[in-house]
Amino acid sequence: FWTIQMQRKEVEIPADAPNSFDVKVHVEYIRQWNENKAELEYVATEYLRMSGLYWCVTALHIMGSVDVLSREDLLAFVDECYDDCSGGFSACPDNDPHLLYTLSAVQLLCMLDGPIEKYEEGVRRFVKGLEQDDGSFMGDKWGEIDTRFSFCAVATLSLLHHLNDINTAKAAEYILTCMNFDGGFGVGPDSESHSGQIYCAVSALKILGELNRVDRRRLGFWLSSRQLPSGGFNGRPEKLPDVCYSWWILSSLLTLGCERWINGQKLRRFILACQDMQTGGFADRPGDVPDPFHTLFGVAALSMLGDTTVNTINPVFCLPQSVIDQRGVDML
Questions:
Q1: Contact (Cβ atoms closer than 8 angstroms) between residue 175 and residue 205
Q2: Is the C or the N end of the chain the one with fewer CB within 10 Å?
């Protein structure tokens, strides 16, 4: 007969894990990551370069070091990825435009005080062209539909002050069809609840003025139940904790007003343990290799936990609060 041993879905935090936060080492990590363009890690991530630069610039901005990277070079790259025909932005030159990278481009333009007006009409046309009759959004011309794209469309148009370009009522109704019995949201109707999708749904509904239709207690319970004994969050039940969920979950809890339902001290300890103090950067879990994605969301989570060494992050748009205040947004 067979004996099945269940794997423990948790991590141990080493006794010598980092327990303090040094901004300078992480600023240097991001600077070097963007300078070492011949490194395998940089070359292999070309397919998501626009979002990668958004992660880097946002992290630098809330660490008070946005000038570490060349503004002119960043804006030139954004311009090179713009597609005049469709009005959208691609991840890198000679790739298809996509809603994910269009939002990242608009976020970069906001943080860098770039010429948004140059692209505004085209971006509005691109987003509107991906809207479906049921209120959902395709990510690009190839037809994939996902609640991530609903958030991208709503957030992009909100930052451009043109939220009413789309049918906002239908957009909200579609997102609500993706709500599950546990209060969470999946990639579409009847899909498993996932913390990343919950962030997208909650933030989009907040922008659309329909957050009151979410079951706050039920969703808050599901989200807070993602915290494990190590202090980290997993994205779904029976999964390992990951630093990125520190952002997806804590931002959603803040938007819902349920941030006190988790142990912030234990979460901070887990996040700090995921640093690499030699190279800089944050990894998904203690002892793993850092990357810009987890570095942003580790730093952003520390901001939401009240760390005074970094600037305030907006939990809905994942942009520095100072940028949101300066730019202003359309919220219904």
A1: yes
A2: N
**Of 306, 308, 283, nearest in space to 293 by CA:** 283
DSSP per position, 115-170: -HHHHHHHHHHHHHHTB-TTS-BBSSTT--B-HHHHHHHHHHHHHTT-GGGS-HHH
Q: Which two tokens stand for residue 81?
A: 């990825």
Distances (CA, A) of 137 to 70, 91, 143, 157, 325: 34, 19, 9, 13, 28
Residue 33 is which amino acid? W
Q: The whole model's pTM is what?
A: 0.96
Amino acid residing at 300? A
For each of the chain's 332 residues, which pLDDT tens digit applies?
344 444 558 999 999 999 999 999 999 999 999 998 888 889 999 999 999 999 999 999 999 999 999 999 999 999 999 999 999 999 999 999 999 999 999 999 999 999 999 999 999 999 999 999 999 999 999 999 999 999 999 999 999 999 999 999 999 999 999 999 999 999 999 999 999 999 999 999 999 999 999 999 999 999 999 999 999 999 999 999 999 999 999 999 999 999 999 999 999 999 999 999 999 999 999 999 999 999 999 999 999 999 999 999 999 999 999 999 999 887 87
DSSP 241: -
CA distances, 32 to each of 51, 68, 281 (Å): 17, 10, 11
